[in-house]
């Protein structure tokens, strides 16, 4: 740890963490400190990057967190870290969103799994204990249920209020040589549908599935194409496309640049002639392909471009000798075609014991009730508007 960090006026340093009884033997090893302020995350960059060697998924990496910090500036950064023998061995990058009374994980706007970084299980335990000592309410959304962090959170929450809630599982495919022919994992009906879709595509032009490894020189151009193709369907019509969300666009562009510099960025395309009709953007990390974004041009729906590209993407991952294909997101009809397996997930709401924790819990309960009531009101209003339009249309069709 540099002396500049230790003397920084923007950092509020705590006393050593009060580790739970189960970890008393390790209590002397760890010291907790907290960094806050607009430049909080800039102060530990070398130590932050050093933990990448222990990362098992991209969400734990420095590049992911740095891209999130640069892309979602609303709120106050709040970094919780533990160190052992003056070296940072675990951290959680949090933020206090503007207008909220709780801490959330940095990049929560992405709705991707939350992963804290740690060098080993002891450090993971120390970080979990440190988070449970915070006086601020904390919402940790979508932690992998099969991760060490989930285990440590549950085992160290004896004196604190820790409310776990199940989350939808995240699908994945465990690859082996059989996935060199992914068609064989489909039933006869699906195989027939894809053969028909492929014939429809080939009638329109030469079919190809190029795989790109973007470089720092061309990554912006490649990502422009990803955004453009991703918006050519319902996402574009409803405003859910990345191209229509400046913050999301900044994040994926910033992350893609850093991933390209590390040689792990991948963009897969389906092309008919010279036209790209489907795309996937992801990274190759820890012997796995992580599918982060995908899109297709719905004007080619008779060619099932999304499904055909997924077929070739799985084939390519198996050909590269990867061990898993992480589909991310939630279980949906399109990915259930390929797998029934998924990483279980859970969220945690943490409240300090005493009055502060009680106030935080009460605020969350009231906020949840208000949000659900508002959503119900909007749904009823929308339903009434649809009925009113239907009645008006019926009356206008009556003979004079």
How would you sum up the global shape? globular
Radius of gyration: 24 Å
Q: How many domains in all?
A: 2
The low-confidence runs, each spanning 5 or more residues with pLDDT under 50, are 1-25, 394-400
**Average pLDDT metric:** 83
Number of helices: 12
Structural class: alpha+beta
- CATH topology title of the largest domain: Aminopeptidase
Give the strand tally.
15
Name the quaternary structure.
single chain
Share of residues in helices: 25-40%
Summarize the biggest pleated sheet.
15 strands, mixed
What's the CATH first level of the largest domain?
Alpha Beta
For the record, the CATH architecture of the largest domain stands as 3-Layer(aba) Sandwich
Distance between the termini: 84 Å
Strand content: 15-25%
The helix-strand sequence is HEEHHEEEEHEHEHEEHHHEEEHEHEH
Task: Supply database-style keywords.
400 residues, alpha+beta, Aminopeptidase, 15-stranded mixed β-sheet, 38% helix, globular, disordered N terminus, disordered C terminus
Describe the structure.
With 400 residues, the protein is of the alpha+beta class. It folds into 2 domains: 3-169 and 345-369, Aminopeptidase (3-Layer(aba) Sandwich), CATH 3.40.630; 176-322, Aminopeptidase. Helices cover 38% and strands 24% of the residues. It has a 15-stranded mixed β-sheet that branches. A hairpin with a 6-residue loop joins strand 4 (87-96) and strand 5 (103-105). Helix 3 (62-71) runs antiparallel to helix 9 (246-261) and helix 4 crosses helix 5. The chain is globular. It starts with a helix and ends with a helix. The relative contact order is 0.13.
């Amino acid at each position: 740890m540099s002396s500049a960090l230790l003397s920084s006026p923007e950092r509020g340093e705590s006393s050593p963490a009060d580790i739970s009884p189960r970890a008393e033997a390790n209590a002397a090893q760890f010291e907790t400190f907290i960094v806050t302020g607009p430049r909080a995350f800039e102060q530990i960059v070398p130590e932050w990057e050093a933990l990448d060697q222990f990362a098992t998924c991209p969400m734990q990496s420095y590049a992911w967190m740095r891209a999130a910090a640069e892309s979602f500036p609303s709120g106050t950064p709040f970094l919780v870290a533990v160190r052992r023998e003056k070296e940072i061995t675990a951290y959680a990058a949090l933020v206090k969103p503007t207008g909220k009374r709780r801490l959330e994980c940095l990049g929560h706007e992405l709705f991707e799994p939350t992963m804290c970084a740690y060098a080993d299980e002891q450090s993971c335990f120390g970080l979990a204990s440190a988070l449970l000592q915070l006086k601020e309410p904390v919402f940790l959304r979508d932690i992998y249920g099969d991760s060490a962090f989930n285990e440590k959170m549950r085992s160290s929450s004896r004196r604190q209020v820790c409310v776990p809630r199940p989350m939808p599982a995240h699908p994945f495919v465990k690859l082996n040589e059989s996935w060199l022919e992914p068609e064989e994992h489909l039933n006869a009906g699906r195989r027939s549908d894809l053969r028909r879709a492929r014939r429809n595509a080939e009638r329109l032009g030469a079919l190809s599935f190029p795989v790109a490894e973007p470089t720092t020189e061309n990554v912006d151009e490649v990502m422009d194409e990803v955004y453009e193709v991703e918006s050519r369907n319902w996402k574009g019509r409803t405003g859910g496309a990345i191209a229509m969300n400046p913050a999301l666009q900044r994040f994926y562009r910033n992350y893609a640049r850093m991933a390209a510099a590390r040689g792990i960025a991948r963009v897969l395309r389906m092309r008919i002639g010279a036209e790209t009709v489907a795309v996937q953007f992801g990274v190759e990390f820890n012997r796995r392909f992580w599918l982060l974004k995908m899109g297709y041009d719905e004007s080619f729906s008779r060619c099932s471009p999304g499904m055909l590209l997924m077929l070739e993407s799985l084939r390519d991952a198996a050909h590269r000798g990867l061990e898993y294909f992480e589909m991310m997101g939630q279980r949906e009809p399109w990915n259930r075609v390929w797998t029934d397996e998924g990483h279980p997930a859970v969220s945690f709401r943490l409240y300090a014991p005493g009055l502060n924790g009680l106030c935080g819990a009460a605020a969350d309960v009231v906020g949840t009730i208000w949000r659900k009531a508002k959503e119900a009101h909007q749904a009823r209003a929308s339903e009434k508007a649809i009925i009113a339009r239907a009645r008006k249309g019926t009356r206008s069709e009556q003979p004079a």
